[in-house]
Automatic annotation (TrEMBL):
It is an enzyme of class 5 (isomerase). The active site is at residues 35, 197. This is Ribulose-phosphate 3-epimerase. InterPro entries: Aldolase_TIM, Ribul_P_3_epim, Ribul_P_3_epim-like, RibuloseP-bd_barrel. Belongs to the ribulose-phosphate 3-epimerase family. Keywords: Carbohydrate metabolism, Cobalt, Isomerase, Manganese, Metal-binding, Zinc. GO terms for molecular function: D-ribulose-phosphate 3-epimerase activity; metal ion binding. GO terms for cellular component: cytosol. Binds 1 divalent metal cation per subunit. It comes from Amborella trichopoda. Pfam families: Ribul_P_3_epim. The keyword Protease does not apply.
Length: 250
């Protein structure tokens, strides 16, 4: 599978998003990874006390303890680039975001299985209808078996994003134990795009690439580097080498 290197714009200077995006593309990025996070309600007390006629639990609960950007930012960025915008939706109600993101110009729409157990078929259908590429992501605690039905459906997801940190923040430590999921997916689905996200850098890329990941998301290691182009090139060489030799089969 082709290598796709996707800098996470979460680590960019949001006040200069368009120029940061152009810089990443100049440095050799294939995709731009956009992290959409819906914030976290810490006052859970209210979730249990406010009568459900006013507010459902789903309205109160959020997916991650951080709040980032939404469709208006994608729409603004789209005016400045034709690049593939790889949107990673860490939200409790992905279905509500499909049309806004489609209209805003998102290219990929990757939602979490933990937030879509009852409606993933409908999400995939609508993502495709909105002209985007559907993807599914799984948190570290979620078993890989949970995404098989979405890959094997008649309208399948086209990318699986294996989280290698708990979703919510950049700059966390890579979880090597997630590589079992990547190897299992790669052996079962040789031509699936498999993305890894969280803690990827020059010291962890070899393990991710040799396990079978071909789409690499990285924020802090790319934006924090003196020469982001060198880091992107290390990622690409690693993935290309591993894909050529099918290193996960060893
Ligand atoms: O989805 C994410 C966090 O939930 C980010 O894409 C991810 O953390 C990238 O940042 P870094 O490379 O710094 O770990
Ligand atoms: Fe992400």
């Amino acid at each position: 599978m082709e290598a796709k290197i996707a800098p996470s714009m979460l680590s960019s200077d949001f006040s200069n998003l368009a120029s940061e995006a152009h810089y990443m593309l100049q440095c050799g990025a294939d995709w731009l990874h956009m992290d959409i996070m819906d914030g976290y309600v810490t006052m859970l007390f209210f979730a249990f006390t406010i009568p459900s006629c006013f507010c459902s639990m789903n309205d109160m609960m959020h997916f991650v303890p951080n709040l980032t950007i939404g469709a208006p930012v994608i729409q603004s960025l789209r005016k400045h680039t034709t690049a593939y915008l790889d949107c990673h939706l860490m939200v409790t109600n992905p279905l509500d975001y499909v049309e806004p993101f489609g209209k805003a110009g998102a290219s990929g729409f990757t939602f979490h299985i933990e937030a879509s157990k009852d409606n993933w078929k409908e999400i995939i259908r609508r993502v495709k209808a909105a002209g985007m590429r559907p993807g599914v992501s799984l948190k570290p605690g979620t078993s890989v078996d949970e995404v098989y039905p979405l890959i094997e459906d008649e309208e399948p997801v086209q990318i699986v994003l294996v989280m290698t940190v708990e979703p919510g923040f950049g700059g966390q430590k890579f979880m090597p134990e997630m590589m079992d999921k990547v190897r299992t997916l790669r052996k079962k689905y040789p031509s699936l795009d498999i993305e890894v996200d969280g803690g990827l850098g020059p010291s962890t890329i070899e393990l991710a690439a040799s396990s079978g990941a071909n789409c690499i998301v990285a924020g802090s290691s790319i934006f924090g580097a003196k020469e982001p182009a060198e880091v992107i090139s290390i990622f690409r060489k690693s993935v290309e080498g591993a894909q050529q030799n099918k290193q996960w089969q060893r």
